[in-house]
Give the backbone structure.
Amino acid sequence: MPSRRRFLEGLTLATAAATLPPLARTAAAVDRNSGDAQLLQLLRDTPRDRLLEALVQRIRGGLGHERLLGALAEATALEVSPYPVVGFKYHAFMALQAVHLTTVHGRADERWLPLLWAADRFKVAQAQNAAETGWTLGPPTRPASPTADGVLASFVDAVERWDAEAADAAVSALLQSLPLAAVFEPLFRYAARDFRHLGHKAITAANCHRLLRVLGPGPAEPMLRSLVYALQNHGEGPNPARADLPPDRPWRRNLALSAGLPAGWLHQQGRLAPDTDLLPVLRSGSDAEAVATVIALLGRGVAPAQIWQALFLAAGELLLRQSGIIAVHANTTCNALHYGFRQARDDATRALLLLQGAAFLPLFRELMRADPQRDLTIDGLNPVEPTAAGQDRLAEIFADLGTDRLRAARKGLAYLSGGGAAAPFLALARHYTVTRNLGAHDYKFTEAAFENASQLSTPWRERYLAASVLYCNGPDDRHNPVVAEAQQLLAGA
């Protein structure tokens, strides 16, 4: 198959440019110290009702944040299956990088709360997994392969056949043969392959890559094996390699279209007007029409960054139409695809991630069609001035979430577009994510939305952030009981 051959050739070049060593040559991945092993066992074996107290004792004894994060990532990969759905209980794994980002950017006095909450979520997911199937990630199988190129070809072949067991064995072999950065090249590519599970495959790939940049390669093998199993989940339908199924059609179409992009498209500098050049087709066109428009814009010399801006705005606009779980996943998926686009080194992979991003947004829009809430556009949102003055305006915006979320968004737009500082706005939103979260989506959405906003220019940045208010938490939301318990334990109460 020509597209597979071009991809493997591109990966060979990307591998040569990668700098991280293969897992087999990384001491941290081979000689796990006894403290890490004990922490991993503590997470896996301690009953839920005793885990927070046990972790707080170790925090007081000097346990570091990254050590706990790494042990939690490994424990979740080992204990929580991405089946039957890449979602639900699997959020205990997918949300960890967002939990980490909230910790890094959040308040110092709340530093441990997100991770302790995540540890509790792991125990809930572990129990659900045990009740469903009792599955755990077994020891890896490492088939002998003569060369790194042979290992890569075996992995690509297994993934394209949707053979989960063969792909699991192949990714373990990849980790022994290639730099970690090179291993992610096919993972980013195939994470965007199909429109199943609301974009969670791309989100999982971004989660793994981000976490391993923080943690180092120590927990890479179980994490990437879990990711590969997620990528191969196609539900209970027929094998997609032997069927023509709707979730796979954009990918198959875009494989051919991506090969025809103009030379030098990655380095173009042309601009576009999102509200006239791309948003209209994303509002009403099909996935094929959205991709055709993107290809035409690239043909005009438009910069890929400009197209990503329009995709983020379209995702934010879906929140204005219906601030529910489908719009949330449009934003988090767009974020994950863009992250993969930035991290990938193979031009063919980057092209596919961009085109898949354009195709997915109309598909998310169609999922929302049965239950519209509002007929709003991101460029048509009108600001409403808060009645309070100074920083009290922020308190008023978030207080309005308890009574009128759209009014809160309009006041957020007035605050941000009127020169109000974004930093305290983001800080307050993160505070309510930590203390009043209702689940993993609160972390995933908040961090994805704030990163998406950072890629936008004024005045679009302010409009996107205002739309994000619709899914934020506020002071009238109930305090999260697990977080409240963690606060008491950390305070010594």
Q: What stands out?
A: The mean pLDDT is 92.
